Amino acid sequence: MLESVSHLEEVAREWKINREDVLLLALNSCGARSPLDKPRMRFQLELDSRPADPSYLILSLGREDSPFEIDGRELRLHGERVGTVAGIEDDDAVLGYWRNGTKMLTLNSNQRSQCVGCTFCPNTLEGASDPAIRELDLPGYFAALAANSGVPDLSGVETVTVCTGCFLYEHLALEHLEGVRAAMRSTGCEGTLHFLSSVLTSEAGLDRAAELGPFHLTLTVECFTNRANILKQSKAALTVDQMVATLGAAKERGITTDFTYIVGLDPIEEAVENLKRLVPVTTTFPRFQTFQAHNPLMDVYRTPGSDTIEWNLTMRRAVEELFAETGLRPQWWQNYRSPWAYTFAGEQLTGARI
Fold this sequence. Notes:
Layout: H1 5-15, H2 19-30, E1 40-47, E2 55-60, E3 68-70, E4 74-77, E5 80-90, E6 96-99, E7 104-107, H3 138-148, E8 159-162, H4 170-186, E9 192-197, H5 203-210, E10 215-222, H6 227-230, H7 233-236, H8 240-252, E11 256-263, H9 268-278, E12 287-290, H10 309-323, E13 343-344, E14 347-348
Parallel strand pairs: 7-8, 8-9, 9-10, 10-11, 11-12
Antiparallel strand pairs: 1-2, 1-5, 3-4, 4-5, 6-7, 13-14
């Protein structure tokens, strides 16, 4: 994807994109070779070309064909150092973790082992911990989290995100979300309750979600082609018409709407054609994630050409054109695998990166 640091500079000049965005896009797509005994890791990256503005990443390791190599101290491109790393952790499931300082809490409150998983998900490849919190335990967990984070309560938290994909049915998800909202209120949090899922789609279910207070639905779209082979059944069964209808109905109820999409699974033409239909029913910038193949076997799911930097930059530019007039823009802290890091269609992106 990138042949050298000089090739990186050449691509950045040719496409008129800062080198950091090109590098991070390639890194997310390629993964890295590493002597570290971890299938995936979370870490902070300080690029040599932008040392004052570090980023947080989650990366696939063990990719012997990658032009990138990472160890406990450095990130190198074809042997040449391009950044330093710190705060390395296994990317396993923890009960909760912060993004954007302590303004946004991501909650893994349901057992991941209940999810059969999609082909791009690392859940089925790791011997990770399998946390679960019963609704009755959530207030205690939130109180302990606040104390451990040095805040008196969670009143300053703007968003609590439930991101596990392990709810088999809509009513089970809603029961859990009601418990999360009650626990949020017990610790002073009246922020947005954010849910990533494909099971919340019915009119009655959306009514119930809207009653929970500020609510944000991220529909897990992921891809448009080869869905039966890539996605678990509950996601694969959702048609594009149903996606549009669900997000439209949620938007009508005052629910914040967006979706997740994996860049690199669909041909560009099919991707743009279908994404165009979702733009009018989306109220915040979607979670576009660069496809990370966790091992060589997963490369078979890449759409032809998506293993090149030119394909990825073409797709990036196509999405920019779709969202240019909406005013919606990506934020790195919401998505550590974004095709956008520091700029979007030439505009500077600001905000938290951790």
